[in-house]
Amino acid sequence: MGFSEYLKKDALGVTNTMNKEEKKSEVQNVVGEGTDSFAIVGIGASAGGLAAFEAFFSGMPADTDPNMAIVLVQHLDPDHKSLLADLIRRRTRMQVFEVEDGMMVRPNCAYIIPPNRDMAFLNGTLQLLEPSSPRGQRMPIDFFFRSLAHDQQERAICVVLSGTGSDGTLGVRDIKEEGGIVIVQTPESAEFDGMPRSVISTGMADYVLDPDKMPSQIIGYTSHAFDKLSRSFTAAALSDEASLKKIFILLRSQVGHDFSQYKEKTIMRRIQRRMAVNQIDTLERYTKYLQQMPMEVNALFDDLLIGVTYFFRDPEAFKSLEEQVIPLLFVNKNTGDDIRVWSAGCSTGEEAYSLAILLAEHQEKLKKSFKIQVFATDIDSNAIATARTGIYPSSIEADISQERLSRFFVNEQESNKYRICKSIRDTIVFSEQDLIKDPPFSKMDLICCRNLLIYMNRDLQKKIIPLFHYSLNPGGFLFLGASGSISYLNAYFSVLDRKSKIYQRKEDFHSSQNVNPSPFLLLKTDITTMQPAKKNSIPEKPSLRELTETMLLQYVTPAAVLVNSQGDILYIHGRTGMYLEPTPGEAGVNNIIKMAREGLQRDLTVSLHKAVGGKELVQCPGLSIKTNDHTYTINLTVRPVMSELNGKSENSLYLITLEEAPNLELRSQQITAALNSIVGEDEFNLKDAEAQILTLKQELRAKDEYLYTTKEELETSNEELKSSNEELQSVNEELQSTNEELETSKEELQSVNEELATVNAELQTKVVDLGQANNDMNNLLAGTGIGTVFVDVDLHILRFTPSVTQIINLIQSDVGRPVGHIVSNLVEYNNLVEDTQAVLDTLVPKEMEVQTNSGTWYAMRIQPYRTLDNVIEGAVVTFADITSSINLQKALRLNEERLRVALKVSPVMVFNQDEKLCYTWVYNPNAAFSSYSIIGKTDHDILTAEEASRLSVIKKQVLESGVGFRSEVFISTNGKQLSYNLTVDPLYDISDGIIGITGVLMASTN
């Protein structure tokens, strides 16, 4: 689906016929609480875009939310999964999503276009569509920018970053037309500067910045354009009439155009946008800023003139024009007649060229030649200059069919742009014109004004509509834009197609005979300065000189033909039927040589050749020509046309006069008398004279035959050359077709190259990340001192860490060898291969302690090597040095054995209790208190209540104070009360925290 088709439908597929104000209200109702409170920033990039994206997000504020949503449109390879979302997540604290169809846009989030999709913005959601254009001709950035402009209007913000080609240029125009802002990356900072330079060349960029400087500028702009104070700006500004009038005066004095009669709301929206760009709060301050900065006056003027147009804008309307109006323009027109069209407010010329293409196509259907003239006007001199060049970015492919591109455009491959073909360019005249004050054109067959009336107020519209009526021929047509409906058009025009806004000039208009352009031409003239017209003025009588010259031209002057240096007839005066006759065949440019009658052609050719070569008068009297079986004698004269001003030849034109010679009968009698006198005096021999005359006639006949033969040979050669030319044209068409195919292939390859560049940038970033992760892992393994060996499923060594070489005799060249071929330093352990294979077979890790020849102990662990996809691709063998732990365990066991022996021979009971005074360990207990009956119990469980209470008080005191206690206690066992010496000390953990008590109970010697 193309963008023009997409815009015709809303989310329910209903045709959208709302005007701009209705659309704006609808958007606010639908989105209202959503995007109305935050900005939507569309960012487009192609080759080199990844680095620009990263630089952009690096400039985002680190401590605050930017209160905007960012939508990234990148040229992506349609056949591969994009890594862009993952890469962007590492550069921003915003949430990053790859777009899904219908996804709602939220503030402080970034959205990435998925591969092989076009994306549009509609009512606060992102809609995904199947690309309608073939690969290499897609313009996803233009597509999104246009939808963003259509939906968000003056709230739309677009950013164009690095990339080749011109994708984004057309979309930028829509953004500007709706009052949004355009930010472009500086070409110097872009890896590929094609897209930034293309946008900058349009003159529509508000900011040209490095990517890292863009976020702060956007935040500054939105704080002025979107805050609550700015919403009431228009009403407040309209009340400040003094400042507004000063702005109009500044504009008129500097640029020469008066905008005071344009719609106030439109003017104020443009002024508000410029204030937001310059971050100025009040209209009074902005007026002072204009006075101090003349360049800002020009910038405001450019904003007021934003007239976005593109080829065949609104295709349905142009289709109606092509079918209903264009054929009528040629009705009752003869070959060579004028077809006159006026494109008012043509902007950069796309509309004018579209009209010229439609006219050329219909002329070709009729197989006739007409003089097509398209007059294209605008008050913007820069736009007119662009239109005159006829060069447009390659992104126009989205609006023009391939057939029209190949017929009417030349693809300039070096600049990746299209140039309008010469035949179309020659039919258009571009000029700077202000409809308000400059004279209009007249005798127009069609007037097209699709982007101008909507900006004028009603008073100015009422003056312009009669002007158009005056400029049109009877029955002429008016073609307005989709928003150009004027209520009082009915007084001057009848409706031909209401939907397409096509109207026809009324001829029964009550004042049609009195319509005069002077009221429109003198809009700015004080009416008191106008001279009153003379009443009952009588037309002046022609002078006697004029009457005489008219009669002489009509009855006395000979037949004359004005031709160029090739003999092509430009103008005919008088009756020429005696001398010229039409040539058979197709009608085209008439050439006087081909039309010359028998007996005139040869001398006419020679005389014209002499006149062209010598720039002088050539006379050829007494020529005999044959007309309707009669022979006449004529005089031929060829003279260069001279300028009366400078006496020089004017554009290589020549005037050929043809007149019948005077009566030759008298002259013949005179010659006969002279011959008779000669014969009488000199005894002229008549027979000799007759013989001589006969000889001369034979020579003349021979020369005539020679010239005739030569002429036939030349004609034959000419036919052969025509045939060769046709063959060359056929070859040229084939070459052109091949060239077009190559150009299409080049575009596809260029698109693929951009996509591959994006993929390559993503992969390079991934490689850097993997390298960093690899370095981290190597340093981690080296820092832990754990020896590690990685093997594949065939038990071939893949890699190892340096510390493992102390256990297994490995060197770097052993990578790839089976692990069983390597000699190890392990004592009494030769089952590494078997154990590793067992782990791969069962997927159960295995651990054991092993010792090297040097006496070092290691904890060896063998476990499967799993990928992120849970695929087993080998095993990992690790060796952790546990020598210290083993030695400590040995020492601990030795100490425990010594303690056990010492306690065994001593009448001492040793115990530990936790914080709840439960026994956790008892050694060598009294026979009455075996360990199994004491563990987990308290004194209350094994002693009398009185004895237990007394011991509990002592032990709690030690727990609370952390101070040991020694005392004699009495404990009853087997019905006897015995005396014991009790020692209680706090029990500490590794961090010196009391976790219980330890005590010693020894029988008293008393």
Automatic annotation (TrEMBL):
GO terms for cellular component: cytoplasm. It catalyses: L-glutamyl-[protein] + S-adenosyl-L-methionine = [protein]-L-glutamate 5-O-methyl ester + S-adenosyl-L-homocysteine. Residues 715-725 have a biased composition (Basic and acidic residues). GO terms for molecular function: phosphorelay response regulator activity; protein-glutamate methylesterase activity; protein-glutamate O-methyltransferase activity. The active site is at residues 46, 75, 167. Residues 241-508 form the CheR-type methyltransferase domain. This is protein-glutamate O-methyltransferase. It comes from Methanolobus tindarius DSM 2278.
